[in-house]
Amino acid sequence: xxxxxxxxxxxxxxxxxxxxxxxxxxxxxxxxxxxxxxxxxxxxxxxxxxxxxxxxxxxxxxxxxxxxxxxxxxxxxxxxxxxxxxxxxxxxxxxxxxxxxxxxxxxxxxxxxxxxxxxxxxxxxxxxxxxxxxxxxxxxxxxxxxxxxxxxxxxxxxxxxxxxxxxxxxxxxxxxxxxxxxxxxxxxxxxxxxxxxx
Length: 198
Known about the structure:
There is one protein chain. This protein is an alpha/beta fold. Helices cover 31% and strands 21% of the residues. It is built from five helices and eight strands; from the N terminus they run E-E-E-E-E-H-E-H-H-E-H-E-H. The chain has helices at residues 56-70, 95-102, 118-122, 131-139, 173-197; strands spanning 8-11, 17-22, 29-33, 36-40, 44-50, 77-83, 125-128, 150-152. It has a four-stranded antiparallel β-sheet with strand order 1-2-3-4, with no helix packed on it. A four-stranded parallel β-sheet has the order 6-5-7-8, with helices on both faces. It starts with 7 loop residues before the first strand and ends with a helix. The model is unreliable at 1-40 (pLDDT under 50).
């Protein structure tokens, strides 16, 4: 995207950053990293949604935050998670999901909340874990004003062919590991997609 009037450009050496362009009217940073060119827009907000917000969606939130932090993109990308139902409001991520994450050296945190209509306005992208979640989200948008924001999480997978992230709640430990495999793939694909489209 071409700079808008009032932009400033300068050279900066250090931390692998070769060229920085600041644009005053909304664009925060355009940086050419060593081997990578990333155009970063103002803050983008993503919401992950499952049924109860204690297994799949908080896992996606924590994983996405992990990958965002690894690339130092916290000033530009933020996320949250919610459930279409309010069964577990205020609860932390499921113990079994936290244990599965710990085996991968990760700590999952959070407090469950229910999806609300205001989330359509607050978030730029809303990702459903399965088709049932997708339908439940869209029921709160009967006129379809925000349908363009609602996508399926597995649409961003690059290595797995599954179309939905299965609910591991009633299964064994292997189900939680499988969910993390899918979500790691989808979160990394999502991050690359956001970087390329910004």
